[in-house]
Amino acid sequence: MSPSPNGSHILRLGLLCSHGGSNMAAIVAACQEGRLHAEPRVVIGNNSHAPARERAEAAGLPWKHLSSVTHPDPAALDAAILETLRAYDVNLVVLAGYMKKLGPRTLAHYRGRILNIHPALLPTYGGRGMYGERVHAAVLAAGERESGVTIHLVNDAYDQGPILAQCRVPVEPGDTVETLAARVLACEHQFYAATLERIANGEIELSAFAGR
Ligand code: GRF
Predict the structure, then answer these.
(1) CA distances from 29 to 26, 35, 87, 211 (A)
(2) Ligand 1 contact, 17 CB (< 6 A)
(3) How many CB atoms lie within 10 A of CB 2?
(4) 148 lines ligand 1 (CB under 6 A)
(5) Of the listed 9, 37, 118, 152, which one is catalytic?
(6) Among 49, 63, 100, 117, which residue has the most ligand 1 atoms within 8 Å of its CB, making it the best to mutate?
(7) Residue among 152, 167, 185 to mutate when testing ligand 1 (max atoms within 8 A of CB)
């Protein structure tokens, strides 16, 4: 990444989302409000009807629909995603509720520079099939007293890349999947931007995690 005059890094973000896009919107708002020193460049979504699209367009960001609909061949989709990220000069890929796996070319090109957010304390309650309400249902079924948010680097295995930061969220008596999900999501909205700012100001060095 290119150093800025104060020694930090200019983050040029490529954001990928599938549905709600509330994490993407929270990150973009943090940039616009000066809490996050980064430039959102492009939003890529795999669902052309997702609220994420409206949120991206309302924020004045380019939205690109890239999916198995636009590119039935997985290799072509991988190439299109990589080409789009490079065309917008992205140097940090931010998965924000993106439900698909990235292809090998994108993973290789941005290795060590792809982040994901998971709504639990990895390494527990993660992996293939552990997404959305299933995560919170499993936390509640296990009788956990706390859950949380994990931000990690992405590698080719689901939810197994090096953990960059975690935030704990209490499980309250009487919690349902919905109430726990809402509490965790509110934490995500703050914590993703705050963690990105720690990357922007050099407090978190991604290169220190890349080989793990
Ligand atoms: C979040 O809970 C995130 O952790 C998970 O999917 C959800 C996305 O929500 N990966 P949104 O699309 O950001 O509103």
Answers:
(1) 5, 9, 23, 32
(2) yes
(3) 7
(4) no
(5) 118
(6) 117
(7) 185
CB 208 within 8 A of CB 42: no
Beta strands in the chain (DSSP E): 11-17, 38-45, 63-65, 92-95, 114-118, 146-153, 163-170
pTM metric for this prediction: 0.94
- Strands 11-17, 146-153: parallel, antiparallel or unpaired by DSSP? unpaired
118 is catalytic: yes
Give the Cα separation of 82 and 139 in Å (integer).
35
Quote the tokens at residue 197: 């700012």
212 residues of the chain, pLDDT tens digit each: 444 444 445 999 999 999 999 999 999 999 999 999 999 999 999 999 999 999 999 999 999 999 999 999 999 999 999 999 999 999 999 999 999 999 999 999 999 999 999 999 999 999 888 999 999 999 999 999 999 999 999 988 878 899 999 999 999 999 999 999 999 999 999 999 999 999 999 999 999 987 66
For residue 93, the number of C-alpha atoms closer than 13 Å in the C-beta half-sphere is 25
Atom from ligand 1 closest to the CA of residue 23: 13
CA of 66 from ligand 1 middle (Å) equals 19
